[in-house]
């Protein structure tokens, strides 16, 4: 039986992970966290009475304790997340917290040698090889549950997939047959529109993703294609290939999730319905396959599949390549500036068309160099946040 700690249990990833738990006796829950949705955490606490809980702050803890009783184990804040991730009563941690707040707990779980289901791509973007080195040293299994990276993993030869999951791609012979990795993008809500007034895009318009049902932050990232820039960085790091060997195709139908191109010119693609339960189930059951029925893809009735190159309207992917060329500090700045800009947009403090220029400014101001600890990451991040807030003001 797998004992799961689900960080971000009331969010999209956490909710869909719990769908698996409820339908498969092979999974149990030992830990659950929620930042703001305390009512949701209380409900889950009642459903899973043996699970330790973590809330975003002390006020949340008091609400949970009032509802569930003083004897329930309830943690709070960043330290609480880390303790929950490290707890010995779980062997699998679902890293479902969006953005930089999920970094420390993800790294803690990896250092404990657990299986980590990585939905938080920002953790890898910010920490770079630090997370992968920790996986190699601890024996952790790092399995992505982004649909695209899960698809790449499934298309790779088995020895390559195993080496990625264990953070060790040092066997160059295994990888010599891989020529290119292809990520797909739906293009977001604005790809097919040529008449967009970018300064007038509303929050509701930016969050109206045409394929996936997601949270507001990642929906905005998909509208700017920053999400695809983050995924490009993640793929380059996770699969240990230069970013020049990772490319992006816009695929509006959202049925082909990724392709692997081999040295002989052949390609293997992963197709499936736009259902996050598929990559989550794959990561839970690896190296096997989940047996619970999910939505099936009927190719005979599927729409025609089309693929396009990203055009000049969307600069976020090329900025991600610039960040990788500049080094780890620039990758941290890319993510931090985006988080601040998206938050400002969601609060109607800036227009939609100012998000990517804020990132570009952050890259220009990022100091060269690398990071060797989570403290280094925090320092670089805080500097990038300061620059972004200054730019927005």
Please explain how this structure is put together.
By secondary structure, the protein is an alpha/beta fold. Among the domains are: 2-144, NAD(P)-binding Rossmann-like Domain (Rossmann fold), CATH 3.40.50; 147-187 and 225-313, no CATH class. It has 18 helices and 11 strands. The protein has helices spanning 12-23, 38-47, 58-68, 77-86, 103-111, 121-127, 129-138, 147-155, 158-165, 172-175, 203-206, 216-224, 226-238, 277-285, 316-326, 328-346, 355-365, 374-392; strands at residues 2-7, 27-34, 52-55, 74-76, 92-95, 115-118, 141-144, 178-185, 246-250, 256-262, 267-271. The strands form 2 sheets. A 7-stranded parallel β-sheet has the order 4-3-2-1-5-6-7, with helices on both faces. It is globular, with a radius of gyration of 20 Å. 50% of the residues are buried. The model has no long low-confidence stretch (mean pLDDT 93).
